[in-house]
Every structure is written in structure tokens, then in C-alpha cells.
Design brief:
This protein has helices at residues 13-20, 37-49, 96-111, 126-134; strands at residues 2-5, 53-59, 65-74, 79-86, 116-122, 138-149, 152-162. It is built from 4 helices and 7 strands. Strand 3 (65-74) and strand 4 (79-86) form a beta hairpin. The chain has one domain: Gcn5-related N-acetyltransferase (GNAT) (Aminopeptidase), CATH 3.40.630.30. It is 28% helix and 36% strand. It has a 7-stranded mixed beta sheet with strand order 1-2-3-4-5-7-6, with helices on both faces.
Length: 166
Amino acid sequence: MRLSRFLEQDISNQYLDWLADIKINKYLEVRFKAYSEKEAKNYIRFCNDSPNIYFLRILSKRGEFIGTCTINYNENHKTAEVGLMIGDTSFHNKGFGSEVIQILVEFCCSKLSVRKITSGLYESNTPSLKAFLKNGFVVESKLNSQVLLDGKPEDLYRLSYFCSAV
């Protein structure tokens, strides 16, 4: 598993299909907007022009594009917010999300020298919750009825991981 910067030329029909697929984006905020290739390019350009946003492709060991992840780095506070999407459903529930989280933690702690990493999860997204907990994250707070899922209020977990080296 490896991560690489997502470039405009990496946009594919496969990626756009993932963004539009409610089974894949059920717990993601991208589900509220339809993304054209032009809008996706604008987003990627925005991320790549920012020194504090890392928008990355997740590649399998064989080099297959299987998803994306994001790091929003706050240099002032030495924190990072992370998120991921395994878009290729053939890679779901096989530990790849956990492996990506491990890579993100190592990168944030060692390369960015952050002191704290955070993420947010819908309560019913138990596979993601398990993957984050497996990698040392803890539930820092639970925001009651914070989000709407299928039109119904759902709790949102805020997770955190503290890097040992400050």
C-alpha cells in the first residue's frame, strides 16, 4: 500500500463514479454534491496549491488506484485532520483502511511533526471506527444528533491520536 499526490490527470471515470455512488460515499460529505470532472479538477488544484492540504491517492501494492485520503495540516497548532475513502469496493472490509490510517499516522507524526491527529466518524460507520481504534485513536467526544444520515439524525464521533514526539 502506498500513497501518492492526487494530480488533475489522475481523475478518471472510476473516481467520479465513486463520488456519485451512495454505497461508497454514504458517510462522506461529498454525497451532498454531484462532481463533474471540471469541479474535481478545481478541487484537486485547490488542494495542491495549499501548503497545508494533502489530497492523496491510495494505491494497492500492485499499483491499483483504490481510494483517496486527505490530511488537513494546521501548522500553528501542530495538528492534522485526516479522512479516507476506499472507493474500490473489492478492497472493502479487508484491512486496507486500517493500513492507510497507519501510514497517515506515521506521516503526520514523523514528517509533519504534528502532536495530535483528529478525525470524525458517523456512529454507524463501525468498520471505520474499528480501523481507527485499531491504530491507537480514541473517541474524544460524541456529538449527539450532529449529522443527518438518510434524513435521520445520527451521532458523530470525534477521534484523536496523540503523537509521542512533540
